[in-house]
Design goal:
- The N and C termini lie far apart (53 Å).
- The longest helix has 14 residues.
- The protein is of the alpha/beta class and 204 residues long.
- The chain has 6 helices and 9 strands, in the order H-E-E-H-E-H-E-H-E-H-E-H-E-E-E.
- It has one domain: Vaccinia Virus protein VP39 (Rossmann fold, 3-Layer(aba) Sandwich).
- The strands form 2 sheets. It has a 7-stranded mixed β-sheet with strand order 5-4-3-6-7-9-8, with helices on both faces.
- The chain is globular.
Length: 204
């Protein structure tokens, strides 16, 4: 088995990640040299999109704190209709824009701003799936969940994916949010949350 791992690792060029499945299966995209950038590993992405199937087809997605765009690009590869990528770092956003162009990713929109600034806009579209994976050290999970509710951008029965440091306290969910799936891998706790009927800034 060690020899098999070695062959697999040799295929993965340094500074690149692989799209797991869909129309861009096995395509490699760059990882920008940005401190704290932590792409979601293949194994976790595979589990997440098994949870999301078959709802990913035609979904409108939001990739907050997108980083490499691994989650949003995986969603587009698997049939999502659109993904808005929100990334504050210029280096990470530039690298992600290059990936979008290389893949000719129709349906991709890149917003270069902080996640909080994006969610404060008054003209946001409606999203079926939100990927929430901010830098662990920034401790933004709770704030961004509250802003998602206040922004009224969550579609009926929307799903929110949350990735946290395993050592962190479990996230206190907004009213009406229910964790439907949760697992750990290494130092990561990841979960899928159903927003249920909480819409329009928290109204039911």
């Amino acid at each position: 088995m060690p020899a098999q791992r070695s062959r697999t690792e040799k295929k993965l060029q340094p500074g690149r990640l692989r799209i797991v499945a869909g129309k861009w299966r096995s395509r490699l995209v760059p990882i920008a040299d940005v401190p704290g950038l932590r792409p979601t590993p293949e194994r976790i992405r595979e589990t997440l999109f098994n949870w999301l199937a078959p709802g990913i087809e035609g979904a409108r997605c939001l990739d907050l704190c997108a980083g490499t765009g691994a989650l949003g690009l995986e969603a587009l590869s698997r049939g999502a209709a659109s993904v808005v990528f929100v990334e504050q770092s210029k280096a990470a956003a530039d690298s992600l824009q290059k990936s979008i162009r290389t893949l000719d990713a129709s349906g991709a929109e890149l917003q270069r701003c902080a996640a909080q600034s994006y969610l404060a806009r008054s003209d946001l579209p409606s999203f079926d799936i939100v990927f929430l994976d901010p830098p662990f050290a920034d401790n933004l999970h709770g704030e961004l969940c509250r802003l998602l509710v206040a922004s009224a951008c969550l579609a009926k029965n929307a799903k929110v994916y949350v990735e946290q440091d395993r050592a962190a306290d479990p996230l206190a969910m907004p009213p009406g949010w229910t964790t439907t799936h949760e697992k750990t891998a290494g130092n990561v706790r990841y979960s899928l949350v159903s927003v249920g009927q909480v819409l329009q800034g928290g109204e039911r």
